[in-house]
Structures are given as structure tokens and as C-alpha cells.
Predict the structure.
Amino acid sequence: MISANKISIHKFGGASVKTAEAVRNIAVIIKSQTPRSKTIVVVSAMGKTTNDLEKVWAEINYESALKKLLKVANRHISVSKKLGLSPTFLQELEKLFILPTVSSSEARYDEIVAMGELASTKIVAEYLKQDGWDAHWWDVRNTIITDSRHGSARVDEDKLSDYGVEMVSRLDQCDTLVTQGFIGRCPHGLTTTLGREGSDYSAALLATASGADEVIIWKDVQGMHNADPNIFEGTVTIEKLDYSEALELSYYGASVIHPRTVKPIQNRRIPLYVKSFLNPDGPSTCIGDFPFVQITIPMYISRPEITCLSLGPSDYSFVGEDHLQTVFGALAEAGIHVRMMQNSAVRFEIAFDTDISKQKKFESELGSGFWSTSRKNLELLTVRHGTESLIEKLSAGREVLMEQLNPSTTRRLLGKT
């Protein structure tokens, strides 16, 4: 079911919803941007809430976990009070912060960290209603149906239109739905998560499910730059970017867009805008169907905190197809996204974002048939459309551990200076 009304998806990350003033700003932005369309507002957890909830999950002692969770709950209650929300709402909000009883550690993780999105969206929806909006809270777990892979669940994107029927029907009865990014529900009814920073992907999935006309992702930067302005000087906003270029950049680790965000909207030719919630009318980026737009400036991406794992058969035989099958199966089970890889006759090397728990799971899945060694605190530098002199300048004085080249892209795995 596709709505007959124009639908805009607005996604707000944790930085844009971390205080009472930030929540008020969301209302101002939406009102100015979508005066005539139906709106689905996708909201992440407030600030660093997900990090705090991960600490709750990791706490072994029940009383200590409860104390940490109470601090998170009180922070949300404090924001709600500053927004003038009712005592009845505060009581309902408190009920979200209850430690789950599921036995599986992975399922327990998803149930705990999902509290952040559920709480932030409850607050935003309630504030909008108080501010006179025809807004309603929507549980995205009724729309985003995933497999049972906790921590990095997958969605059958071909079924999204079916999944979205109930949500679109609800939106036809009001002006605005406020819902969550990052989370979903598996067929067994348990909460799942789509992987860290997965809220952008959620917005794209909901755009497909609802037949939306546009997706707007609100960040603290003015559109997509040719490099991270927090790392590099003199960066500029890219006004138009073709889907294919955006896919390349997100695959290589551009932090503005989640790697899985682009494909669902590309399939439906839905334009995606990246704008700044700090300056809504400032420079922005439109990602769309622009196959003839030429990239005239170099684009470069730095991924810090990279681990390089070298491995091979324990009998030091050749790395064959059977070995690779085992390696890729173990990577999938561990939920590791490979940033870079290469192999030789007796060695296979993979670079990925440092995550000790996932690395341990991967090595356990490999079993005793492989040896492995790892090196941490590395940086993965990717340069697209750059000159050789620029690449040398960016990696000057660094040890180059791995390099890959193609006509438009150079990638180097670098050791510390």
C-alpha cells in the first residue's frame, strides 16, 4: 500500500536530539521543511545513550547494571521535564527502562540498546503533540522485519512494501509519525538491531516501505564534504552526487552515510538530501540519479582504529577455495564488515573496524585449522579522483602495510607515525 500523499522522511541522529533545546529545534526544522507533506520522523537515541546502554549490557552485577540504567532513565526524564511534558508521560517513560530477562546475551544486547531509540522517539512524539502537531508514535518493529541475527540483522528489502502497509495506513490518518532508527523485530518477536549507525539505513528502508518522495538526513555538518571536516582542513560540500558515487564512498567508509543506506533508495529513485540541523538553509548535498555529474575535486576518507588480521591454514598449505569458504562463513557469523582484504599463496589478510568481541568470535568460528596474528591501531586511507602527489602527501611518513589501486581509487592501510 502506497500513500496518495507526498511523504517526506526526516532522520535525526543522536546529536540532533540530545537536549531539550535540540528536540525543540527538530520541531522548527520539520515545520519549515514540510508544510504540505506527510512526514515520517526517524530518530536515533539521544547523544551517547547507546554507548551508555552498552555498558549496562556488559555489566555482570545486576545491581550495578540497574544503577547504570537508572542514570540513563533519569537523563531522559530530565529532558522531558525541561520540555514541560506531563507527569503521566514521565511515568510511562520510566517503564521503558527495565532490564530484560532474555537468556541469550546477543538478544539481551538488542533489547537493552533499543531502549535508547524507544525513549527518544516517545519524547519527540509527545513534545510534537504538546506543540499542537497531529503526531503519533510508531513502533518501527511493526514495519522493519529482520532475520534473527542479533546485533547485525538483515532485512528482506523485497518485502518492504508489504511490511509498510500498516504504517502507511496509520500515516494516512495523521500528519506525522515519529519512529525509531536502528531497530527491528525478528520472526520470533524479539527486538533486533541493524548494526551501529544503522539509523540512516532505517530511514532508507522506511522510504521504500512507504513509497516516500524524499529522504532528508540531518547531520551536524553541511552536507557531504569531499573529506571529513573534523579531520581535514579546507573541505567543501558536494552539491550533487550520483547514487553510484555515494555507494562507493559509503562502502569505503564515509562517515556521513551508512553503507547500506543508498541501495534501497537507488532502487526506487528516491532522492536523499544531507542537511545540517545547525544551519538548515545552508549548503547541502543531494544524492540522486546524476550519472553525468563529473567529480572535479578529490574525495578522501580516513578510517581510524582499524585492525589487520593475517591468517592462513595451520599446516601452512596454499590458501584454497575451501579455506576461503570457511573464512567468509566465519566473518558472516561474527558480523564483521571487511574494509580491505588481500591474499597470497599461504596468507589471507583482512582489515576491519577494531572490535575485540567480534574478532574473538571470528577466530573461534575459524577453529584450529587456521593460524592468525593481528595488528591494531591502524588507519585506512581511501582517495578517489586524487593525484599521486595528494596521496603521497596524505600518507607521508607512514608505514604502508597494504595498498590497492584502480583507475579512480587508491587505498592504503597505514601504520602509526
